[in-house]
Amino acid sequence: MTDSKNPDQKGTEDEWADAMAEQDASKDTDPSKSTDESAADAEEDLWAAAMAEQQSTEEEESAEITSNENASRAQNADHEVFKQLDEGAAGTTPRDLELIMDIPVKLSVELGRTRITIKQLLELAQGSVIELDGLAGEPMDILINGYLIAQGEVVVVDDKYGIRITEIITPSERVKKLNK
């Protein structure tokens, strides 16, 4: 059938028939997909396969690196343990103590304590007297880094104050002092 307005145009029925035959041929290979769609799916399948292969390779490498690191850590730990056993217990104790001998600690002596309100604190002026809970002549607490370790009495040596240790506090006595 030719178009009456366009007599030079060949029959469109032949072109339609050819297009339909081509479409039917592509449906025979995969009825749900056109030629372009099947090419795109094939390309996606290739990408998916490549990504899966890459991921499995990375996982294998990661597992290998992790196992190597764990093995080297275990080997280093073994060397450290065996070095200590080889050197002997008597040889390591004095050396370990030498490492801490030069560490500074803060020693303080506490005369006593008290609790005051903020109002009383703000009313303090030069010459004010604050009453402490410690009694005159009572031993003073000797603290190392804030922990009670001994008690002593105040002495004066060459115009400077000092403290004479009168009692070392045992761990059980330290606990009792904390409860006061």
Describe this structure in words.
The structure is a single chain. The chain is α+β, with helices and mostly antiparallel strands and 180 residues long. It has helices spanning 12-29, 35-87, 89-100, 118-122, 171-178, and strands spanning 107-110, 140-144, 147-157, 160-168. The protein contains five helices and four strands. The chain has a four-stranded antiparallel β-sheet with strand order 1-2-3-4, with no helix packed on it. Belongs to the FliN/MopA/SpaO family. Residues 99-169 form the Flagellar motor switch protein FliN-like C-terminal domain.
Features:
5 helices; 4-stranded antiparallel β-sheet; alpha+beta; 4 strands; 180 residues
What is the helix tally?
5
The sequence of SSEs as H and E is HHHEHEEEH
What structural class do helix, strand and pairing data support?
A: alpha+beta
Q: Report the C-alpha radius of gyration, rounded.
A: 46 Å
- Indicate the proportion of strand residues: 15-25%
Average pLDDT score: 75
| Cα end-to-end separation | 115 Å
Total strand count, please?
4
**Order of strands side by side in the largest beta sheet?**
1-2-3-4
What is the overall shape?
elongated
Subcellular location: Cell membrane; Bacterial flagellum basal body
InterPro entries: FliN (IPR012826), FliN-like_C (IPR001543), FliN/MopA/SpaO (IPR051469), FliN_T3SS_HrcQb (IPR001172), SpoA-like_sf (IPR036429)
Membrane topology: Peripheral membrane protein
Keywords: Bacterial flagellum, Cell membrane, Cell projection, Chemotaxis, Cilium, Flagellar rotation, Flagellum, Membrane
